Amino acid sequence: MAFTSARSGARPLNLALAGTPPAAVGDVAADLESVRRALGADRVEGMHQVHGADVARVPAEASDAPVPQADGLVTDATGVALLVRVADCVPVLLADVDAGVVGAAHAGREGVRAGVVPATVAALRDAGARDVRAWIGPHVCGRCYEVPVAMRDEVAERIPAAGATTSWGTPSLDLGAAVRVQLADVGVTEVEHLGLCTMEREDLWSHRRDGAAAGRLAGIVQVVA
């Protein structure tokens, strides 16, 4: 598994969904192909992320079916890398190494509220996973993710750990903390949290900081034979 926006020449890789803004930032197809080659994967599978809690199962065989509208992916197929795109939301990678089952989840504010991470863990277990480990990648942190007080209180009412305050004293959300609580609630206790904030680091894409000019970084996980 990996989280990447590693630089290609003088710019970060842009792993946006091809054909959609901000795909104009760099050469998305070339960046995706360079990632596939670096991983040694047969193919890289993403999703059209819609800020919900639906989870799609990715089969071993490639198809011409549309990219799934989902915020979680699960597979037990070797050679298939799952990719979750973010530019401030929380990328979560999941794996049971012994069972050979992996998953990826896109946890934005609405996805956290809807429970996309627990839903993805449940889909992994349905696919045979038992001992699930998790990795939480770069995302906007609670020190920076300013929101209206009503929005913070609405999310924190459901997940108290999400309530936070910015470094300048205004209401905020800590989605990483909320995800850690959700993982613990479904029995995932081995969690690595990278602790990198997309707004604070210039080498990471941030939609809040850069607006429409922001590309996408990615979390990627695959089953290795």
From TrEMBL:
Keyword vocabulary terms for this entry: Copper, Hydrolase, Metal-binding, Transferase, Zinc
Reaction catalyzed: adenosine + phosphate = alpha-D-ribose 1-phosphate + adenine; inosine + phosphate = alpha-D-ribose 1-phosphate + hypoxanthine; adenosine + H2O + H(+) = inosine + NH4(+); S-methyl-5'-thioadenosine + phosphate = 5-(methylsulfanyl)-alpha-D-ribose 1-phosphate + adenine
Keyword Hydrolase tagged: yes
InterPro entries per the UniProt record, alphabetical: Cu_polyphenol_OxRdtase, Cu_polyphenol_OxRdtase_sf, Cytotoxic_necrot_fac-like_cat
Xref: CDD domains: YfiH
SUPFAM superfamilies in alphabetical order: CNF1/YfiH-like putative cysteine hydrolases
Superkingdom of the source species: Bacteria
Molecular function in Gene Ontology: copper ion binding; hydrolase activity; S-methyl-5-thioadenosine phosphorylase activity
Pfam family, one: Cu-oxidase_4
Family under the similarity heading: Belongs to the purine nucleoside phosphorylase YfiH/LACC1 family.
Known role: Purine nucleoside enzyme that catalyzes the phosphorolysis of adenosine and inosine nucleosides, yielding D-ribose 1-phosphate and the respective free bases, adenine and hypoxanthine. Also catalyzes the phosphorolysis of S-methyl-5'-thioadenosine into adenine and S-methyl-5-thio-alpha-D-ribose 1-phosphate. Also has adenosine deaminase activity.
Protein name: Purine nucleoside phosphorylase
Species for this entry: Nocardioides zeae
Protein encoded by which gene: pgeF
